[in-house]
């Protein structure tokens, strides 16, 4: 019996490898829907509107907030980021596991609205490796990299608010662990109420 979809929130320092992990997860396993956020930051080379993000102007973004069209939104390094409500609710209703890749303020806001959401934090094996990955990605200036590393120091204070910590050292291993955690969450009694009711009735 397929139980209902889970809302999964993945956070982690910029450069930890969240985007890379999500891409592999959906390539290797079925049943996942990735939410596409709205942002006011400029697209990086290779990013497409409607694929990585919906790229909006500040005015357009503020209109979405006013229309209550976002589940949550936050400011991160001078830009707005937010989760469109429609897609998440639609996919969950279809029984799919929906993944939000968002920063910590957004993660906490989601947990308040959806207490059953599973929160995962992705960290690199070391701070040195984080800097190497951020610089290696080659999509930000050194100044932006430094800003993101300062932000990482703040974010590290919030890790205990998450349900699980994933260390993205070997990518393949980390993808397997991510899928295993979500798979395990499907086995919680709270997500299997229909089956529990059925077996109780059969036993009665
Ligand atoms: P995030 O989405 O968390 O900001 P990215 O997915 O863009 O991070 O990854 C940052 C950089 O690190 C990319 O260049 C990516 O190819 C690289 N990377 C991701 N995971 C690993 C890993 N397990 N080992 C080595 N490099 C990685
Ligand atoms: P980036 O600019 O590297 O794509 O993302 C910067 C940060 O914004 C990352 O920590 C990412 O997880 C976060 N982020 C992306 N989309 C959202 C969103 O919809 N809401 C919130 N709160 N954070 C987001």
Identify the notable features of this structure and list them briefly:
204 residues; alpha/beta; Rossmann fold; five-stranded parallel beta sheet; four-stranded mixed beta sheet; 8 helices; 44% helix; 21% strand; binds adenosine-5'-diphosphate; binds guanosine-5'-monophosphate
Task: Explain the overall architecture.
The strands form two sheets. The protein has a five-stranded parallel beta sheet, sandwiched between helices. Strands 4-3-6-5 form a four-stranded mixed beta sheet. The two termini are 20 Å apart. The radius of gyration is 18 Å and the shape is globular. It has a domain of 136 residues: Rossmann fold. By secondary structure, the protein is α/β, with parallel strands linked by helices. A hairpin with a 2-residue loop joins strand 5 and strand 6. The site of adenosine-5'-diphosphate has 13 residues, from helix 1 and helix 5.
Topology (elements, then pairings):
Blueprint: E1 7-12, H1 18-28, E2 32-34, E3 37-39, E4 53-55, H2 58-66, E5 70-76, E6 79-84, H3 85-93, E7 97-101, H4 104-113, E8 118-123, H5 127-137, H6 142-155, E9 164-167, H7 171-185, H8 193-203
Parallel strand pairs: 1-7, 1-8, 2-7, 3-4, 8-9
Antiparallel strand pairs: 3-6, 5-6
Helix pairs in contact: 1-7
This protein binds adenosine-5'-diphosphate (ADP) and guanosine-5'-monophosphate (5GP).
What can be said about this structure in brief?
By secondary structure, the chain is of the alpha/beta class.
Q: Would you identify the CATH architecture of the domain at 7-35 and 97-203?
A: 3-Layer(aba) Sandwich
Shape, per Cα inertia axes = globular
Report the C-alpha radius of gyration, rounded: 18 Å
Q: According to CATH, what is the topology of the domain at 7-35 and 97-203?
A: Rossmann fold
Instruction: Give the N-to-C terminal Cα separation.
Output: 20 Å
Q: Mean pLDDT, as a whole number?
A: 94
Going by CATH, the homologous superfamily of the domain at 7-35 and 97-203 would be P-loop containing nucleotide triphosphate hydrolases
What is the count of β-strands?
9
Query: What portion of residues belong to β-strands?
Result: 15-25%
CATH class of the domain at 7-35 and 97-203: Alpha Beta
Instruction: Give me the side-by-side strand order of the main sheet.
Output: 2-7-1-8-9
- String of helices and strands: EHEEEHEEHEHEHHEHH
User: Which stretches of 5+ consecutive residues score pLDDT under 50?
Assistant: none
The main pleated sheet reads as:
5 strands, parallel
